[in-house]
Amino acid sequence: MSGGHFWAKSAILVAAALILVVKSELARACSVCGSDDPLVAVGDSSPNAGKLRLALSLSLVNARARSDDDPRVTEEVTRGTLTPTVVFSPLLRLNVALSVPVLRNRYRATGPEGRLAVTLTGLGDTELGLRYFAWHDVNFVARRRQELAVSLGSSLPTGANDAALDGERLDEHAQVGRGEFGPHIGVLYAFHRDPWHFTADASVRAYTTNHYGYRYGSAALWNVVAEASLTERVALELGVTGRDAAHDRQSAGLQADTGGFVLQAVPGISLGLPGAFWFRARVEVPFVTRLFGVQNLGPTFAASVQWAP
């Protein structure tokens, strides 16, 4: 297998894992974090029937927002997430991805009446998705490959959404799960011509309402990424991710300090390890933010190890 194909497969798994990580983090204090469609990178190259790929990623993100319940209170969420991802190709044109994140959620609420700090650890919302390649073109003379694919899937409410302190349920900000389904649909275009690789995608996601009457805002998401292989075992990445999210809702009312528009620059690096293992690190840095109400979104730091034989 060529170095270019090795690198492409590593990028597929890592980006999928990282996107799943960030997306699983979304809370009201971070309602515009990250970029979605967990199969964006998983579908970056055509699947090989019967192939299995694995990834394990670690992510850290911080966000703050004014409380919608009490505008005098500032809420802050710092989340670390460990996410195993499994990608399987049952058919030549089909990828199936499953991700099950484990979250460590540090929540702080500071106001005139004092400060609340709590840390929750547990299983987050599982992600299941499918990507089907509707079009595939290969030019061996030019060493060029192009693909167009569609995807669909959903987050599943496997994370706990009822954590309480002293008998009182903690705010949505503090919960490790959303308690609702998050179906999504998207499209991806990929272009490869060694040593360059380019992908662009767009997707939309909506949410159901959880048991406590809370619903996360629908969002449009997109990613544009350029990658360059310096050697067979070293590659650099530079991308831009975007998210435009509606306000969240609590029962019949809008949550003023949720949702908005954000663009993030995404530099990254991939390093080949012995065998079929790869290490990848990246950071997502907001450079345009037009968030509703009073919110602040910090950078997301992430690293991953993946196995792509």
Approximate shape: elongated
Q: Please list the strands of the largest sheet in the order they lie side by side.
A: 1-2-3-6-7-10-11-13-14-17-18-19
Helix-strand makeup class: mainly beta
Number of continuous helical runs = 1
Distance between the termini: 9 Å
By CATH, the topology is Porin
Please provide a written account of the structure:
This protein is mainly beta and 309 residues long. It has a single domain, classed as Porin (Beta Barrel), CATH 2.40.160.40. It has one helix and 19 strands. It has one helix at residues 3-24, and strands at 52-66, 74-91, 94-99, 102-111, 114-123, 126-139, 144-156, 164-165, 168-169, 182-193, 196-205, 214-215, 219-231, 234-245, 249-250, 253-254, 260-272, 277-291, 295-307. The chain has a twelve-stranded antiparallel β-barrel. The protein has a three-stranded antiparallel β-sheet with strand order 12-15-16, with no helix packed on it. The protein is elongated. Residues 1-29 and 34-43 have low confidence and may be disordered.
Layout of secondary structure:
Blueprint: H1 3-24, E1 52-66, E2 74-91, E3 94-99, E4 102-111, E5 114-123, E6 126-139, E7 144-156, E8 164-165, E9 168-169, E10 182-193, E11 196-205, E12 214-215, E13 219-231, E14 234-245, E15 249-250, E16 253-254, E17 260-272, E18 277-291, E19 295-307
Antiparallel strand pairs: 1-2, 1-19, 2-3, 2-4, 3-6, 4-5, 6-7, 7-10, 8-9, 10-11, 11-13, 12-15, 13-14, 14-17, 15-16, 17-18, 18-19
